[in-house]
Design brief:
Blueprint: H1 4-24, H2 31-41, H3 48-59, H4 64-85, E1 95-96, E2 99-100, H5 102-106, H6 108-132, H7 137-151, H8 156-166, H9 173-199, H10 203-230, H11 233-236, H12 242-245, H13 251-255, H14 257-274, H15 284-294
Antiparallel strand pairs: 1-2
């Protein structure tokens, strides 16, 4: 029987191979820009967001092949956000996924442009994938529209702004959860909702999957905050203690380490309950992913 770890690794590898293939075929791009895009995009990582797209489609009995371009596009959006987050004007990080950050290798200008290019290419890939799969125009347009909302100023980007504004300031638990709902949760929700649209989910199941994704995103962020305190740099691929050094608002800073761990378990269990009990949905892999993330060390 396949373990959830091997399931995630198998899906992540399929996404990685597809990303390599898509970007290798890109024509008319300055070589240095293409190299910078591929450097971060193919650096590895958990591939959690595209895996969630594929797992959600599978849970609904849909076709993985048609979903793969959308999964890859969302990973492009995620990677662009990491490249920009690492810039000196943002989080000023030197390492990401165990490698030097993009701007440390290519310089700030090319890192910014690589992120810009990945974000733009993502929407092109979704449009192309939708046409090739003969996806209903209404579904394709909805997915693209939601991508702009969840990844943009009202979503992930807005969350990043509030995160910057919260540095060196007093942030309440409610404010912190609002930041992470947008900064982390919105792209998680977009991943699951994209899989739900592609899998033909009913409105009721779409709503429950969305609640699952937001709780999963919050749990993921709490675990990230915990690992920044107790993690191993060689395992997580970036320095530990950087959040405290930058005076960033985190769950351990507000709640303490043990209470953060308790909250992590509570929210993970709540996430799993959202996807149970639906005839059209087989939630085994989604529940397995939630349990796996609860125990992750990177």
């Amino acid at each position: 029987m396949q373990t959830i770890k091997s399931y995630i690794e198998e899906k992540a590898e399929r996404v990685h191979e597809a990303l390599d293939e898509y970007t290798a075929r890109m024509q008319g791009i300055p070589p240095l820009l293409k190299e910078a895009m591929r450097y971060s995009l193919l650096a590895g990582g958990k591939r959690l967001r595209p895996v969630l797209v594929l797992a959600t489609v599978e849970a609904l009995g849909g076709e993985e092949t048609a979903a793969l371009p959308f999964a890859c596009a969302i990973e492009m959006i995620h990677t662009y956000s990491l490249i920009h987050d690492d810039l000196p004007s943002m989080d000023d990080d030197d390492y990401r996924r165990g490698k030097l950050t993009n701007h440390k290798v290519f310089g700030e200008a090319y890192a910014i442009l690589a992120g810009d290019a990945l974000l733009t290419e993502a929407f092109g890939l979704m449009a192309k994938g939708g046409k090739e799969a003969a996806l209903a125009p209404e579904i394709l347009l909805t997915i693209i529209e939601e991508g702009a909302r969840f990844a943009g100023a009202r979503g992930m980007v807005g969350g990043q702004v509030d995160d910057l504004l919260g540095e060196n300031g007093a942030v309440s638990l409610e404010q912190l959860e609002s930041i992470h709902r947008r900064k982390t949760g919105d792209l998680m929700a977009y991943s699951v909702r994209t899989g739900a649209y592609l899998g033909g989910a009913s409105p009721e199941v779409l709503e429950s999957l969305t609640r699952f994704a937001y709780d999963l995103g919050l749990a993921f962020q709490i675990q990230d905050d915990i690992l920044d305190v107790i993690g191993d740099q060689q395992v997580i691929g970036k320095p530990v203690g950087s959040d405290e050094e930058k005076h960033k608002a985190t769950y351990p800073a507000l709640l303490g380490l043990e209470e953060s761990k308790r909250k992590l378990t509570e929210i993970t269990n709540r996430a799993k309950r959202h996807v149970e009990g639906y005839e059209e949905l087989n939630p085994a892999s989604l529940i397995g992913i939630a349990d796996y993330l609860l125990q992750r060390d990177r």
